[in-house]
UniProtKB/TrEMBL annotation:
Organism of derivation: Paenibacillus flagellatus
Transmembrane segments: 26-44, 50-71, 110-126, 132-152
Record's keyword annotation contains Transmembrane helix: yes
Identification of the protein by name: Uncharacterized protein
Keywords: Membrane, Transmembrane, Transmembrane helix
Superkingdom: Bacteria
The keyword Membrane is annotated on this UniProt entry: yes
Amino acid sequence: MHRLDKDATVYNYTLVKRIRHRPLPLLLYGVLPLPAALFMAVSVSPWSLLWIAAALVLLPMLYGGMTALYLKQHGSNQRGPWTFAVRWPWLGLLPEQHTPLKTVVRIHDHILWVGLAVIGCFYPWLPTPYWIAWLALHVWYLIPRFWIFLLLRRSKKNGLLKINPRDTSFYVE
């Protein structure tokens, strides 16, 4: 039998729910903005394609920055580091280890409402099609994450979330 070091920490987690990231639905969801972008390019301006492409690249960086600010202000009790990852549906700053579900949900609530407030501030100055496109892209990025939170809503709130490349798992201690 293997003996543990006297200073070793042992964690016992029980898997409650695993949500697999299926490639086909994620691919179809990822292609969803293309018809809207083409419609904007034809009806509004060809420059719309450039702005939408820039938004697709910059939004995860902005969300990562907002997550980093939140963690700097409120994350003193976080387990382990957070790193920037590009894995759909989780784009942006992600925890490398098990993280409390409440923390991840709270961060995404902040991202949702701060993003809506910032987009709302630009309403008087942006043409309506661009404003609607910003709003749609903001919501489009966050819907898969909130869908996962919706699937986990019946689980205990004091559990831990582990985000892997192929699935999101929810554990209780």
